[in-house]
Design goal:
Elements lengths: L7 H23 L14 H12 L15 H4 L2 H16 L4 H16 L17 H18 L33 H5 L21 H10 L5 H10 L8 E2 H7 L4 H8 L13 E2 L22 H10 L20
Parallel strand pairs: 1-2
Helix pairs in contact: 1-2, 1-4, 2-5, 10-11
EC number: 2.1.1.63
GO molecular function, one term: methylated-DNA-[protein]-cysteine S-methyltransferase activity
Protein name: Methylated-DNA--protein-cysteine methyltransferase
Length: about 325
């Protein structure tokens, strides 16, 4: 007999138990026993609720209170409640670092005090589509991310983007040149200390453990960006997914996912090029891939990588075939 869908009342009770009972008890026990978390920055129930809801409801970009009316547990959707309980469980297992989540929560609240976080009016899941608002929010995200790690402006943000997508001094086709081509053979041999060729992943079975470990251990990535990049590793070569499918899997919004993918330090091995707009266009969310299907700085590379992997484009430059959505 099929399991009955979990009611919203049951999810509300599970969430209340998580932040009111289980997490405070774990923090107290961890003070004397060994160590789920390296340190517990908070011990009070409403602090656990703040940290988790800022990450899930606020998506690491805004306080949850700017997107949802109080009391939060009564106004969250089933998807949000389930995501909060799941994140709490990961904290209890030591799979998520509470200190990192708390730091991100405090940072977005400080930004709100400075007037950098627009408060939403209406429902949490209503997308703010106006281009001006979206652009201002993305600018705030980039500048704040830059300042967190010692930079003074947006140029510092380039350090968190893979060098593969940086503007090149060599002709643009060289990163995806066939290994047996004259241009490839004329290029200098890589030194032993260098990383593998940026297109080696096109020709060898992917070993994701190394990249998953790098994502998990990179201190400059927020927890939300880690979730996005980790999910991205599931998309197999020769397939593509969409911002909508990826955001649905992450209980997030396409805008937040698109913004996170602009700052992928492990491209193309962690394959942000396999995420397209709904309808098969290249997409981009005004990021490094161009805007609304227009040619951008890296459109040619994105299309070239997908073609190398076996993805087919029609005469209008859109992908042929059904988008992959097999996330687990």
């Amino acid at each position: 007999m099929a399991a009955q869908p979990e009611s919203i009342e049951a999810l509300q009770q599970s969430w209340k138990k998580m932040y009111q009972v289980l997490l405070p008890a774990a923090a107290k026990a961890d003070a004397t026993e060994n160590k789920i978390q390296h340190t517990w920055p908070v011990h009070i129930d409403h602090c656990f609720a703040r940290i988790i809801m800022d990450n899930v409801v606020g998506e690491g970009e805004a306080p949850w209170t700017s997107r949802l009316k109080s009391p939060g547990y009564k106004n969250m959707s089933k998807t949000q409640l389930r995501a909060c309980v799941e994140l709490g469980s990961k904290i209890l297992k030591g799979e998520e670092k509470l200190c990192d989540l708390n730091r991100e929560s405090l940072e977005v609240r400080e930004r709100e005090k400075r007037g950098q976080v627009p408060r939403a009016n209406g429902r949490q899941e209503r997308e703010v589509d106006e281009a001006g608002k979206r652009k201002r929010q993305e600018d705030d995200d980039e500048v704040e991310e830059d300042r967190k790690f010692g930079g003074r402006g947006r140029k510092r943000q380039q350090a968190t983007i893979s060098k593969y997508w940086a503007k090149e001094q060599t002709p643009p086709e060289s990163p995806i040149t066939r290994p047996d081509s004259p241009r490839h053979s004329a290029s200098p041999s890589p030194s032993p200390s260098r990383s593998p060729s940026p297109t080696s992943f096109l020709h060898t079975p992917p070993n994701l453990n190394n990249w998953l470990q790098k994502i998990s251990s990179t201190p400059t990535l927020t927890p939300f960006r880690k979730r996005v990049l980790t999910a991205l590793c599931q998309v197999p070569p020769g397939h593509y997914t969409t911002y909508a499918f990826l955001s649905k899997h992450l209980h997030s919004s396409p805008r937040a996912v698109g913004n996170a993918l602009r700052n992928n330090p492990y491209a193309p091995q962690v394959p942000c090029h396999r995420v397209l707009a709904t309808g098969g266009g290249l997409g981009g969310f005004e990021g490094e891939w161009g805007r609304n299907g227009e040619a951008g700085a890296n459109d040619g590379k994105k299309r070239g990588l997908l073609k190398k992997e076996g993805v087919v484009f029609d005469g209008k430059g859109k992908v042929v075939g059904v988008a992959w959505e097999g996330f687990v």
